[in-house]
Amino acid sequence: DGLTKLSFPESLQTIGFSAFQGCDGLESVSFPEGLQTIESSAFNGCDGLTKLSFPESLQTIGFSAFQGCDGLESVSFPENLKTIGSSAFQSCGSLESVSFPANAKLETIENNTFNNCVSLTDVSFPEGLKIIEKSVFYGCVSLTDVSFPANIQTIGKYAFNGCAGLTSVSLPEGLETIEAQSFSNCGSLKAFEVETDNLYFLSKDGVLYNKVNNTLLQYPIAKSGTSFNVPDGVTAIGDYAFDSCGSLTSVSFPESLQTIGNNAFASCGSLTSVSFPESLQTIGNNAFASCGSLTSVSLPESLQTIGSSVFESCASLTSVRFPESLQSIGFSAFESCTSLTSVIFPANAQLQTIGASAFASCSSLEEITFPASLSAIGVETFAYCGNLSSLTFLRDAPAFSHFSAFTGIASAGVIYYPAGSEKYTEAWKKDKLVLGPDWKLAPAYRLKVEHGAGDGTYGADVRVTVKADTPPSGQVFDKWVSSGGRFDNANSATTTFIMPAAHATVTATYKDDTPPPGHTHFFDSAWRYDNNNHWHECTAGDGARADEAAHTASEWITDKAAAKTEAGSRHKECTVCHYVMQTESIAPTGPTDITVDGAPFTVTINESTIPQTGDTANPLPWLLAMLAALTGGAALLLYRKCRCTKRRG
């Protein structure tokens, strides 16, 4: 520990492995002219060293030889140096300057050599340098400018990652390879420049591209502007190409694009909209992870694969519609998308598998319909979706489901299955889905919507929004007709259809926009209606009305009777045109148990005799009657108790 200075005999050729490691009081070293090799960790952690001057004879510096020499400020390398081992000067926190002679023999700077040298501001490379390996200048936050020699061939992965002071990068004509994330997380980087004679790379508006495979490699984080149009002809977005571009709000892609790479847009916190082309086939892992402002995603029909964690933690994402062509969804693809409420698979989907945790912790998701093509649901795929209470399966027989797939979803709900299937059983629900008795099994029926949207498979009494297509030229929407069920308003182009306990078809009909001039009115026998009135309308479509009157409400009509533990439903409709004027649920009829002086006393209330929400009856007589019944029951029990006491006396 008392060693402060070192000098060696001229005959010394090698300083051995860890020879002076941890000598933090060592302030100066005089190397002999015959020295050829400094082995691994020889001066590791010698914090007192401030300057190094190596002899011309030196050829090799081993890995971690000067790692963690926090006091070291500058290093000059000799001409004959051939090898600098990995991490040789890593984490030398005070190192500001590194210089090589122009004609130095060094061809490769190995992994992590100057990693985390946070004070490094200036580097001059030898002309013969060909390779900068992985993470060589990773985290050198003070480095503001880099000048590469003309013969450099390869810049390795993470080589300048996290160099927050870099504002521009100029790449020479001889460069052949730039590995992933070489310049990622360079927060001040505004532009790339490439020599025009380079055969492999080009820059356009400061953005770096690969000429050979038409790939956008890197978008500078600090480039001005909030939107970007990827140029025509680009077929791929490279891994991490837009990673952490916080100011970018929108990106549009050309029809030539086929692939979006891993982490391509990860942590683009301001990105709100993305328009995908129909040519897109693959979205890589984490491609849009943690894009907290992204609200909706519409995926193209050409897409075949969604990688792992693609949209993970996109907290503002509310809806996603998958294409028919999609075959797999990777693990954690939409995990922790806490605003996601709508997940839609088309009727003819080709989806085979949904990966582990793909929709885990999507706390706003309430319902989902699985396509008939689905064969497997993975580990914890929908785990902890606490509001998920409706599952619809379209496959004739249940798909394989891992026992943890629905862990932590709602404690009660409905499982809809194809009407007529006998494979969806209580045993399957309990053993395969691991769902409790408050989850009910119910058949589902096909709804076909002609000339409109809303097709699907739904349970009886489910309310489905149907929307008519845009009318043909010269026509306007007329009304909805159906093979069963009923509409809230059949005269509205967008309305609610109440599903019957059977397969159904609803059809949007149209009529001519302009009635013929001058005619005798003939009124349709079917009632037309809105929220307030009903009428008969002229069949010529001129808008003439007859028999118009306000709706007259019926008594309550029970749609579904309440059970002890399950709510029912009922409605009021117009007695003339049957327009549904009011709907509400009926509370479960389960007994109310009361204990009087330790003895159970049960009062069962018949739902049909109690005023419900919206009933115009005065509730006071009913409440008084109930109170009288309870008082009478209590008095009877007290009387019996008194008689028993007297007998014992």
Automatic annotation (TrEMBL):
Name this protein carries in UniProt: Leucine-rich repeat protein
Keywords annotated in UniProt: Membrane, Transmembrane, Transmembrane helix
Organism: Diplocloster agilis
Domain of life where this protein originates: Bacteria
SUPFAM superfamilies the UniProt entry points to: L domain-like
Residue spans crossing the bilayer: 620-639
Matches recorded under InterPro entries: Bacterial_rp_domain, LRR_5, LRR_dom_sf, Surface_bspA-like
Domain Bacterial repeat: start-end pairs: 454-512
Lineage of the species this protein comes from: Bacteria, Bacillati, Bacillota, Clostridia, Lachnospirales
Pfam families: Flg_new_2 (PF18998), LRR_5 (PF13306)
